Amino acid sequence: RERIGKLEWLIPEVDEMLGGGVETQSITEVYGEFGAGKSQITHQLSVNVQLPPEQGGLGGSVIFIDSEDTFRPERIEEMLFGLEDDVLQAAMDQREIEGSIDDEEARDELLQSFLDKIHVAKAFNSNHQILLAEKAQEIASEYEDSEFPVRLLCVDSLTAHFRAEYVGRGELANRQQKLNKHLHDLDRVGNLYNAAVVVTNQVQSNPDAFFGDPTKPIGGNILGHKSTFRMYLRKSKGNKRIVKLVDAPNLPDGEAVMRVTGEGLKP
Ligand code: ATP
Predict the structure, then answer these.
(1) Do the Cβ atoms of 233 and 240 come closer than 8 Å?
(2) E runs forming strands in 52-149
(3) Confidence of residue 247 (pLDDT cuts 50, 70, 90)
């Protein structure tokens, strides 16, 4: 079994709270209301994971299962070039790209190289999403001995399709069973290939819902059991966001503040 890796958000307060960053071989669930910034986190981590370990990354590539059509290459570009110059330079050296970070050609090459390492798959419905998680194992296996092995598996959003398709109390058990199998597959990729698994989840949106706590993530206990790290994301003033660690093994609960900016997530 390989050593557990830590993928940094590059936000000291958050990384400290996480004991160094998002762990490989675990599922991290990020949940929060719409617009809280869950997709911003999956994008930022898709950039950061590719960086060399000295820069907070894991020198790895990404499988990004996109169920709500949220993946934006332009956002990757903004976040990449929002990194500090020395980090960008290290990324160029790592990829043996000639030239300086001010050189347009070199920048284009660097961006293309980052985008190439994010394997995006759109999930059209929950069954397709389950299939893509099975397929993720094959992709991770294919890249296992490459220069950039898969070190991050994102599912954004984990629950949207399930929630839309399995409606009503009568479908709840069925939904949970399918979600459970899906999480098991995701967990397997993380464990077998030493990848961090990051999934997003919305909080129950209807405060008048007949059942369910409006401040609780969709999926209830089963999801709570499977995702080892659970983080609640909440809007604050302006572009500020509160990141709360709710449940983690061997770590105290805590809160950290970050900002969502044009150049990505910042302290
Ligand atoms: P949902 O549940 O609806 O998918 P989410 O939690 O995934 O929402 P995101 O799409 O990650 O939310 O975040 C949207 C927020 O991120 C916007 O409200 C905005 O504040 C911020 N944001 C997105 N893009 C930019 C940008 N280019 N510059 C600055 N802020 C941005």
Answers:
(1) no
(2) 61-66, 118-122
(3) confident
Both structure tokens of 62:
């990404």
Stated pTM of the model: 0.94
Distance between terminal CA atoms of the chain? 34
Locate 198 and state its tokens: 């990051």
Express each pLDDT in 13-37 by its tens digit.
Answer: 999 999 999 999 999 999 998 899 9
Which DSSP state fits 98?
-
* CB-ligand 1 contact for 48 (6 Å cutoff): no
pLDDT band for 222, please (50, 70, 90 cuts): low
Q: Is 39 in the pocket of ligand 1 (CB under 6 A)?
A: yes
Nearest of 75, 66, 44 to residue 267 by alpha carbon? 44
Task: Please tell me the number of Cα atoms within 13 Å of 70 on its side-chain side.
Answer: 21
Predicted-complex ipTM score: 0.96
Q: Which of 30, 163, 260, 263 to mutate to test the pocket of ligand 1 (most atoms within 8 A of CB)?
A: 260
Task: Say whether pLDDT at 204 is over 70.
Answer: no
Q: Whole-angstrom Cα distance, residue 48 to residue 63?
A: 14
For residue 3, the CA-to-ligand 1 centroid distance in Å is 33
For residue 155, which of 116, 193, 187, 110 has the smallest C-alpha distance? 187
Q: What is the pLDDT of residue 168?
A: 83
Cα dihedral: 120, 125, 130, 134 (round 10)? -40
Residue 32: phi, psi to the nearest 5?
Answer: 175, 175
* Coil vs helix vs strand at 103: coil
Whole-angstrom Cα distance, residue 96 to residue 89? 10
Pocket perturbation via mutation, ligand 1, pick of 30, 31, 39 by most ligand atoms within 8 A of CB: 39
